[in-house]
Write a structure and sequence with these properties.
With 122 residues, the chain is mostly helical. It has one domain (2-113). 57% of the residues lie in helices and 5% in strands. The chain is built from five helices and two strands. It has helices at residues 10-19, 28-35, 58-74, 76-87, 92-113; strands at 39-41, 51-53. A two-stranded antiparallel ribbon has the order 1-2. Helix 2 (28-35) crosses helix 5, helix 3 (58-74) crosses helix 4 and helix 3 (58-74) packs across helix 5. The mean pLDDT is 91. GO terms for molecular function: DNA binding; transposase activity. Residues 2-81 form the Transposase IS116/IS110/IS902 C-terminal domain. InterPro entries: Transpos_IS110 (IPR047650), Transposase_20 (IPR003346).
Protein backbone atom coordinates (compact mmCIF):
# COMPACT_ATOMS: atom_id res chain seq x y z
CA UNK A 1 0.00 0.00 0.00
CA UNK A 2 2.74 2.47 0.91
CA UNK A 3 4.67 1.92 -2.33
CA UNK A 4 1.62 2.93 -4.39
CA UNK A 5 2.25 6.55 -3.34
CA UNK A 6 4.48 8.49 -5.76
CA UNK A 7 7.74 9.35 -4.00
CA UNK A 8 7.66 6.40 -1.59
CA UNK A 9 10.30 3.81 -2.47
CA UNK A 10 11.47 0.58 -0.92
CA UNK A 11 13.67 2.27 1.66
CA UNK A 12 11.04 4.73 2.87
CA UNK A 13 8.37 2.03 3.03
CA UNK A 14 10.69 -0.26 5.02
CA UNK A 15 11.61 2.57 7.38
CA UNK A 16 7.97 3.47 8.00
CA UNK A 17 7.00 -0.15 8.66
CA UNK A 18 9.98 -0.81 10.94
CA UNK A 19 10.14 2.41 12.93
CA UNK A 20 6.51 3.54 12.89
CA UNK A 21 4.31 0.53 13.78
CA UNK A 22 1.59 2.95 14.95
CA UNK A 23 0.96 4.02 11.33
CA UNK A 24 -2.76 3.68 10.67
CA UNK A 25 -3.83 3.55 14.31
CA UNK A 26 -3.41 7.20 15.36
CA UNK A 27 -5.04 10.42 14.20
CA UNK A 28 -3.27 12.76 11.79
CA UNK A 29 -2.25 15.16 14.55
CA UNK A 30 -1.02 12.36 16.80
CA UNK A 31 1.09 10.69 14.11
CA UNK A 32 2.61 14.05 13.08
CA UNK A 33 3.49 14.77 16.71
CA UNK A 34 4.96 11.29 17.18
CA UNK A 35 7.28 11.73 14.19
CA UNK A 36 8.15 15.30 15.19
CA UNK A 37 6.39 17.13 12.35
CA UNK A 38 3.95 19.04 14.55
CA UNK A 39 4.97 22.62 15.38
CA UNK A 40 6.35 23.02 18.89
CA UNK A 41 5.96 26.45 20.45
CA UNK A 42 8.73 28.00 22.52
CA UNK A 43 6.55 30.43 24.47
CA UNK A 44 7.53 31.68 27.89
CA UNK A 45 5.32 33.94 29.92
CA UNK A 46 4.21 36.85 27.76
CA UNK A 47 6.88 36.24 25.14
CA UNK A 48 5.70 34.39 22.04
CA UNK A 49 8.57 32.29 20.76
CA UNK A 50 9.07 30.78 17.35
CA UNK A 51 7.37 27.56 16.31
CA UNK A 52 9.62 24.76 15.15
CA UNK A 53 9.59 21.01 14.78
CA UNK A 54 11.31 19.19 17.58
CA UNK A 55 11.75 15.68 18.90
CA UNK A 56 10.03 12.65 17.53
CA UNK A 57 11.49 9.81 15.53
CA UNK A 58 14.39 11.27 13.62
CA UNK A 59 14.97 8.31 11.30
CA UNK A 60 11.34 8.46 10.11
CA UNK A 61 11.59 12.22 9.64
CA UNK A 62 14.74 11.82 7.53
CA UNK A 63 13.10 9.16 5.36
CA UNK A 64 10.04 11.36 4.84
CA UNK A 65 12.24 14.30 3.87
CA UNK A 66 13.87 12.28 1.11
CA UNK A 67 10.45 11.01 0.04
CA UNK A 68 9.22 14.61 -0.17
CA UNK A 69 12.22 15.52 -2.34
CA UNK A 70 11.40 12.58 -4.63
CA UNK A 71 7.71 13.54 -4.61
CA UNK A 72 8.62 16.91 -6.10
CA UNK A 73 9.16 15.01 -9.36
CA UNK A 74 6.75 12.08 -9.02
CA UNK A 75 3.75 13.44 -7.12
CA UNK A 76 2.08 16.46 -8.75
CA UNK A 77 -0.18 17.02 -5.72
CA UNK A 78 2.68 17.38 -3.23
CA UNK A 79 4.67 19.44 -5.74
CA UNK A 80 1.75 21.85 -6.22
CA UNK A 81 1.30 22.11 -2.44
CA UNK A 82 4.99 22.92 -1.83
CA UNK A 83 5.09 25.33 -4.79
CA UNK A 84 2.04 27.15 -3.43
CA UNK A 85 3.76 27.62 -0.06
CA UNK A 86 6.97 28.84 -1.70
CA UNK A 87 4.97 31.31 -3.79
CA UNK A 88 3.57 32.69 -0.53
CA UNK A 89 7.13 33.41 0.62
CA UNK A 90 7.88 30.32 2.73
CA UNK A 91 11.40 28.93 2.61
CA UNK A 92 11.98 25.68 0.73
CA UNK A 93 12.65 23.60 3.84
CA UNK A 94 9.52 24.95 5.54
CA UNK A 95 7.49 23.99 2.48
CA UNK A 96 9.10 20.53 2.46
CA UNK A 97 8.26 19.96 6.13
CA UNK A 98 4.64 20.87 5.39
CA UNK A 99 4.76 18.46 2.44
CA UNK A 100 6.21 15.77 4.71
CA UNK A 101 3.36 16.21 7.14
CA UNK A 102 0.80 16.05 4.32
CA UNK A 103 2.39 12.85 3.00
CA UNK A 104 2.48 11.31 6.48
CA UNK A 105 -1.18 12.06 7.23
CA UNK A 106 -2.20 10.62 3.85
CA UNK A 107 -0.11 7.49 4.40
CA UNK A 108 -1.67 7.17 7.86
CA UNK A 109 -5.17 7.38 6.37
CA UNK A 110 -4.26 4.87 3.64
CA UNK A 111 -3.06 2.36 6.23
CA UNK A 112 -6.10 2.98 8.44
CA UNK A 113 -8.55 2.43 5.56
CA UNK A 114 -6.48 -0.29 3.81
CA UNK A 115 -6.50 1.58 0.50
CA UNK A 116 -3.90 2.37 -2.12
CA UNK A 117 -2.92 5.78 -3.46
CA UNK A 118 -5.72 7.62 -5.25
CA UNK A 119 -4.59 10.84 -6.92
CA UNK A 120 -6.77 13.80 -5.96
CA UNK A 121 -9.31 14.95 -8.49
CA UNK A 122 -8.53 18.27 -10.12
Amino acid sequence: MLRSTPGIGKGTAATLIAFLPELGTLSGKEIASLVGLAPFNADSGKQAGQRHIKGGRQIVRRALYMACVAAQRANPDIKAFCDRLRDKGKKTKVAFVAGMRKMLTRLNAMMRDSTTWNPPKT
